[in-house]
Design brief:
Elements: H1 5-16, H2 21-30, H3 35-47, H4 49-75, E1 85-87, H5 92-100, E2 106-108, H6 117-120, H7 123-130, E3 134-139, E4 155-159, H8 160-169, E5 175-177, H9 208-211, E6 212-217, E7 222-227, E8 232-238, E9 241-246, E10 283-287, E11 292-295, E12 300-305, E13 309-314
């Protein structure tokens, strides 16, 4: 097997990660490379001026990661930092100070207490009222280990009544109407927003039609670990959902090599593949019907429906909530 550019790239990346020459030689010869050629390739990469430039950039990255690590250590010293606070309600200034600026999730138990949706969005009632409305779903998720990354390829359309029937029959993770399916943008489902009851003064009601996203799925539907690029509220209307969350300060430990996604499963961390993830502080909370999670900017989260579930996420907070994130993938040269 020749030492091609793919192997040279592998050498450079692992050198920048701090791997020793000995460990890399063992991996390369174990893969079938000739020892002398593998050694020469490592020496070639080490001597490259491009590698020296990359090493300087890697040093800056390590410094930034250390800053994040220390900030996370300090954040976990605060009382209650390892659990998610539950409150009935919160004033705007308190939310901004204690949860937006402080980057701390919050469960609000009273925000949706009086919403008509808590009764009207029972799956059987949705099917009776809107069963003929065609919606876009993700179907065939069980057959694709990368179902979230490949969600566009899994798009299918079906009547809402058929979706509900399959969900009630036990579709598990194979079938899901998620936020990405934009169901509430369909005029026939717009009346559902009238079932969203009172909102606090720090949520802009006028923007709700463009900011509300519907989720319908069976017990066992899952959203793998990722972070969003904006702050949001997520109200559980029917059933329960379990959320596992990690601070954005934990990003260097979550192997974020693609978009906003992490391959780590916070419910069962594979320490052999992801040893740094074993150090992550995981917050764990179950949302019950009528409860709302405030998700601060950049928080990592994975979600599992414990029951047949209907929920609503919405991003129309009355203050800035959307931000840009550069992708971790290699940037093409201009």
């Amino acid at each position: 097997m020749p030492v091609d550019d793919g192997w040279r790239e592998w050498v450079a990346e692992n050198r920048l990660r701090g791997c020793t020459r000995e460990s890399m030689m063992a991996a390369m010869t174990g893969a079938g490379l000739v020892a002398d050629e593998a050694s020469a390739a490592i020496s070639e990469v080490d001597a490259s001026p491009l590698m020296r430039a990359a090493a300087r950039l890697a040093g800056r990255l390590r410094k930034a990661e250390a800053v994040l690590r220390h900030q996370q250590t300090l954040a976990t010293l605060a009382p209650g930092a390892r659990e998610i606070e539950r409150r009935e309600a919160i004033a705007r200034d308190d939310l901004l100070r204690d949860h937006v600026a402080a980057s701390r999730p919050l469960v609000l138990t009273g925000l949706a207490r009086d919403w008509p949706a808590l009764e009207r969005w029972a799956p059987q009632r949705l099917a009776a009222a809107y069963g003929d409305v065609v919606v876009e779903v993700q179907s065939g998720r069980d057959g694709d280990p990368q179902y979230e990354l490949n969600k566009l390829a899994l798009r299918r359309e079906m009547p809402l009544g058929d979706l509900v029937a399959r969900v009630l029959a036990g579709s598990g993770n194979d079938l899901y109407l998620t936020a990405n399916n934009q169901a509430l943008k369909r005029p026939a489902l717009a009346p559902l927003l009238a079932d969203v009851g009172p909102l606090p003064d720090w949520v802009d009601r006028a923007q709700l039609p463009g900011a509300a996203l519907l989720w319908i799925g069976g017990a066992g539907t899952r959203t793998p670990l990722h972070h969003d690029t904006l702050m949001l509220l997520h109200t559980q209307v029917v059933g329960r959902k379990r959320w596992r969350l990690a601070s954005p300060f934990e990003t260097p430990r979550l192997y974020n090599d693609r978009g906003v996604f992490s391959p780590v499963d916070l419910a069962a961390i594979d320490g052999a593949r992801f040893p740094r993830a074993l150090e992550v502080t995981v917050l764990d909370v179950v949302l019950h019907p009528g409860e709302t999670l405030f998700l601060p900017l950049g928080w990592w989260h994975q979600v599992e429906s414990l029951d047949v579930s209907v929920s609503l996420s919405y991003t129309n907070l009355a203050f800035a909530g959307a931000f840009d994130y550069p992708a971790p993938e290699a940037v093409p040269m201009p």
